[in-house]
Amino acid sequence: MKNYILFVLFWSLTCTAIDGQDVYRHETTFENTSRYFTKLNHTNLNDHPEAIIFIMPNWNTNGAGVTGMDYDQNAGVWYDTRDSVWTIFNQDTTQDLKKGVTFNVLIAPPGDKHYFKVKATQGSIAANGFPNGFVIDADATNNKTNAFILVTQNRDSVFNNNSPIVHYANGNWRISNNGYLAYYNGLTTETNSFMLKGARFNVMVIEDHVVSGFANALAFKHIADIPNTYNLDPGHGTFLNNQYINGLTDRLIFAIPYWGHGAQDQTNDSSGGGPYNEGPIMVRYDHPDDQWNYREEKWSIFNTNYYPLPFCPSGAKFHIVAIKPQP
């Protein structure tokens, strides 16, 4: 009981919020982290169970430091009704959340139609046509062929220990679990990759590259190719190249693998279907003073399970949101 009281008293002292912003960096510490979860502390989150949150693991300490820490778990957010705070947690609750992991956190503007929650149902899973995903049926996303979407798992009643990927087909955006290819190709009979009824996600909809409510944000698509990958061959990481983020350590980056569009919905070569990227993913800043010399002062996305980025039929694709904090 004494340890629990100390945990409750001191967890709030270790959050590094960016004043006046609803984007910030959170680092797991002994004070704010216990077992498989870490508690967030922000004015617009505490006592706000209705909040919609997006998270992204960030390898670098404090977001862009020389050192960092891998995080190879599938993460989600969950509202702790006991303490009236939001948490980030490992979907695999048998694995403790390591101390020293940094997460980028974005809090959606309240009431903005571009941010909402969606839950997988028996009907929406069946409508997807494959058991590892479900169809989003919402005005904000239906028939939005050229939109980008980002998602974060938001636990309601079930744990979904998979990394998500998004795609578009037949007028609807869809969310799927990675890891299904082994089952589809007959390499396993395990159904761990099947989407669970009750799995819930927060959804961000981006139209015309505008991130609603964040004037200092940019959304873009990134495609991995051989020249922009690193470490191993063909490589488990891919460098981003955009003047809005190159060399800038203050940027908070969020990303989601994007499978593409169905054949009948493709609008250009970069929207072609496939491949799957078997995440989970993190972002990393290549600091000039670190021990590696990949591509100095560039941001990257990498698979934390070190699974190589796929290049068939094209490179792995990602939706990216980068935000410059306001002073």
How would you describe this structure in keywords?
327 residues, mainly beta, 6% helix, globular, disordered N terminus, six-stranded mixed sheet
* Percentage of residues assigned to helices: under 10%
Helix count?
Answer: 3
Tell me which oligomeric state these chains represent. Answer: single chain
Rounded to an integer in angstroms, the radius of gyration calculated over CA atoms is 19 Å
Compressed to H and E, one letter per element, the order equals HEEEEEEEEHEEEEHEEEEEEEE
Question: What is the overall shape?
Answer: globular
How much β-strand is present in the residues? 25-35%
Let me know the largest β-sheet: 6 strands, mixed
Structural class: mainly beta
Strand order of the largest sheet: 9-12-11-17-20-14
Number of strands: 20
Q: Which stretches are low in confidence, meaning pLDDT under 50 for 5 or more residues running?
A: 1-20
Average pLDDT confidence is 90
